[in-house]
Amino acid sequence: MLTNKLTHFFTGLDISDTQTGLRIVPSIYEPVLQTFPENHFEFEFKMLLKAKDSGIEIKEVPIQTIYIDDNASSHFRVIADSISIYAQFMKFIFSGIVSFLLDISLFAIFLQLMGTESLSSVMWATIAARLISGVVNYGLNRQVVFEKQGDNTLMKYCILMVVQMVCSGALTYLIAHTISQSGNVALATGAKLIGDGILCLLSFQVQKHVVFKRRSA
């Protein structure tokens, strides 16, 4: 199931059915659950995320499943509930696309001005573009994606951004010069697309579990 695979990738939770409503929850967690603004299936999904972030063990007990009339009584709304469940993933992707388009555009402009003959040119273009797009990305992720979760987020994000800048510049140079020794803006920009795509997946994990990690209840 797509939801289970995405949940495992983005959160590390290995659960066979993320949307089951058959759950036994200790009463001590009731006050926390009542603070959730979500309803329906997104409430169940957020419950899992909160348990993971709070270090609460989740235990699955297999049971026999019997559907009456092909599960006609289910209230799952395929489009609406799927959007709600994947909301954080989709917001992160949106934030990433906006920041990435800004970053790649600025990178191409700066690289055109500085040239592509050396590693230093690629690195400086990467740094200049990332500093600007990073401000936009941090604001979107903090306010929209992770909803102001975490402590000392700016400092942790800056450290991540520096590491990501260095890796991005190095990967861009390595990929571009592996393909061709005669550097040009189009080739370097394409190489950056590949390198940053890989780094984006890693960045989500770091931002979710380190930078904007939810405070324990």
UniProtKB/TrEMBL annotation:
Highest taxon listed in the record's lineage: Bacteria
Keywords: Membrane, Transferase, Transmembrane, Transmembrane helix
Single biological process term from Gene Ontology: polysaccharide biosynthetic process
Pfam families per UniProt: GtrA_DPMS_TM
Topological category with respect to the lipid bilayer: Multi-pass membrane protein
Location of the GtrA/DPMS transmembrane domain: 91-212
MF-aspect GO terms: transferase activity
Cellular localization per UniProt: Membrane
One GO cellular component term noted in the UniProt record for this chain: plasma membrane
Similarity comment: family membership: Belongs to the GtrA family.
Protein name, entry field: Glycosyl transferase
